[in-house]
Amino acid sequence: MATHYIDKDGSNTYPYDTWAKAATSFWSFMSSYTYTAPDDSTIIYISHNTPDASTGYSGYNYIDLKHNTSPYINGLRIISVTEKSNPPTYQKGTVNQVYINDVTNTNTILTLYGYIRFIGVKIRVPMIRISTLASNQPGPYLLDCDIYITNPYRNLSHNGAICTDSSGYSFNSVIDHCNMYLDLTVSTNTVGVLFNWYYVASSLHVRNTKLVSMNTITSGSLVRGNGIRPVLFTNCDFSAATGFTSVINTGDYAPSIALFNNCTFPSSITRVNYPSNILPYAYYLFTNCGNDYNPIDMDLHTGQGRVTSSTNIYRVGGSSAFGVNYSWNILTNLSTYGSQLAFPLRTPWMSTVVSAGDKIATLYVTSDTVELSDFIVALEIEHQTVSNSPLKTITSSFMSTSKLTETIYETDNSSSWYGTGPTFYYKKKIQVAFTVSDAGDISWRACIHKKGISASAYFFIDPAIVIEDA
Predict the structure, then answer these.
(1) Are 444 and 377 in contact (CB under 8 A)?
(2) Are 452 and 340 in contact (CB under 8 A)?
(3) DSSP type of residue 169
(4) Distance (Å, whole) CA 26 – CA 407
(5) Is 156 exposed, middle or buried (0-12, 13-18, 19+ CB in 10 A)?
(6) Domain regions of the chain by residue span
(7) Per-residue pLDDT tens digits for 185-194
(8) Rounded CA separation 204/406 (Å)
(9) Fewer CB in 10 Å around end: N or C, the chain?
(10) Please, which pLDDT band fits residue 62 given cuts at 50, 70 and 90?
């Protein structure tokens, strides 16, 4: 393991392996290590009050910090510590420890290649580009950092405060417990995207991170992508992002999968902007993303439509959690991609525990204008059919069966729905018969096959299915 030190009072003597020999700034250190792949356990300690060079780095160049040494267990670590502490004691940076002053040149970028961990470091750069150099390598990890972005404007593939490289990979990059600032000091600078995960082999997890402030913004989306891997946001505060128009713009460059849990956004922002060319496999799920903690808050956007939890309209005696009744409101797009039967709008999977034996599951649905039938909504049950087997089978209400005591899809004359607005003109129940080999979990979801269901249809599903012995 190699250990290096950066301190403003050091002698700048290579290899910077004591506080006395420390590099005097981050870029002084980088002048010896640019384009070098250190070993997997290299640690760089930087004093919490050691600023980078007074002007930082400027010029028509990329600044590359690389770590590409297998087996990628410990990575290259840059840790902010109390000045000259021995042993080094963690202390968050109080000055610009990593600094690029050039806010006008659109090719001046801090590029992090590979498993590089910045811990507690204060970073002030035009933008950050993240990548890896091997398909099995984890991406960079920024923990407890203050990140100031000063000029994130780039071309189509690099337009973002934090973005992926134009080639290579970016697996499992993480931004954790960080504060972000959009400090655009040049009036012509704008930012179209906060996180741009543009390339296919890219995944990102942002958690416990806050956008603290921003001083210039025109329009744009918080997240952009073009890949098959997910972007995940957990416990993040984006309430300061008042200049952005959407969380996701689902045009040609949108992530395939984006999951947001317990995140806050300004009330003025649209969660998902739907153009006519939304991709059929898009999947964007928001859970508990209101201003108050709400464990049943769910908002799912897909290429086929939207499923949103509602506490204003619900089936009496149906779904409830923490004493709150709720249902799912269904909206579907006028998508031109493929067959609606091939790409139905699917609700999230729900689960419950049942005993072994022959069962009948019942799903309750209502609508004002959509005459419901089994060609519009299907109920799917995932259940175990072979004892002690880890494999499960999906049984759909589309499949005819003689085990049902009544028709698969019939008028629901017993339920009462609550809410202001709808008349609940159509009330139906959908049933499916299935056999469970062993007691345990089963899962279910509804598949909606009708295009163009609008808000005026008042199409609602009760998420609580009723399971009975056949």
Answers:
(1) no
(2) no
(3) B
(4) 73
(5) exposed
(6) 3-293, 345-469
(7) 655 555 677 8
(8) 49
(9) N
(10) very low
